[in-house]
Amino acid sequence: MAKTFVIANQKGGIGKTTTATALAGILNRSCxxxxxxxxPQGNSxxxxxxxxxxxxxxxDVMVDAEKIPLAEAVQHMENGDIVASxxxxxxxxxxLDGDVEGLYRLKDAIDxxxxxxxxxxxxxxxxxxxxxxxxxxxDEVIIPVTADAYSLQxxxxxxxxxxxxxxxxxxxxxxxxxxxxxxxxxxxxxxxVRDDLTGIAEEMHTRLFETRxxxxxxxxxxxxxxxxxxxxxxxxxxxxxxxxxxxxLLG
Length: 251
Ligand SMILES: Nc1ncnc2c1ncn2[C@@H]1O[C@H](COP(=O)(O)OP(=O)(O)OP(=O)(O)O)[C@@H](O)[C@H]1O
Ligand SMILES: [Mg+2]
Known about the structure:
The chain is an alpha/beta fold. The protein has a single domain, classed as P-loop containing nucleotide triphosphate hydrolases (Rossmann fold), CATH 3.40.50.300. It is built from twelve helices and seven strands. It has a seven-stranded mixed β-sheet, with helices on both faces. A hairpin with a 2-residue loop joins strand 3 (74-77) and strand 4. The radius of gyration is 17 Å and the shape is globular. The model has no long low-confidence stretch (mean pLDDT 95). Residues 16-17, 39, 43, 122 line the site of magnesium ion (MG). Magnesium ion is lined by residues 16-17, 39, 43, 122.
């Protein structure tokens, strides 16, 4: 069985996709890794240069009545194996409404895909049935956070959602930790927020990862060029930090 990590935070633009693609890129160097893009925006799908026309996507796997097996939706790209997202995924809420098994679509699909060591799932900045599917299918949640005052808002709601899933649908779900991303370390506010986060992590019965991910312009460049950071700038600060993070994560 693959170990499944989901990257989640319902706040937009916080660094989920950057974290998910970095993690998958690093894991894929030594282990068989599958990326699943569960965000209808499809940012990771674009980075992998995966297609969505005439190709089964996560929508077909999760939402379509035919329930296509996960393996049929996998695209083998230069950046690695990916199940692409589709803007249609935004309709999942409506389509799965009233389906008693609607929360388990992704879990059922993943249970059938046993030839991967790791699965990394990128999620959208929203709390909806797709996110619940991801949390129910996952072994561990990684929560990227930034060191600004607003970043902490919403963590409570995410934690309540994770707790509810742990209580009912996925008791084995673990919060791997809070990961401080886009960190400059220059301002006093950042240092204060970092202290606050240590306390919040404790309340969430998890940890704030020691590793912080520093900013680097190469990150945006890699995204624009549709490259994985590990290929585009393996030695930039952001990439060095993500490498240290993965070591800490796998411990
Ligand atoms: N370490 C970094 N250094 C510089 N820029 C970064 C870094 N991490 C993320 N960014 C930039 O921040 C922006 C948002 O990052 P990203 O797309 O990963 O967030 P997201 O949480 O996935 O957003 P959304 O909620 O829209 O899916 C992007 O422009 C990205 O390039
Ligand atoms: Mg994203």
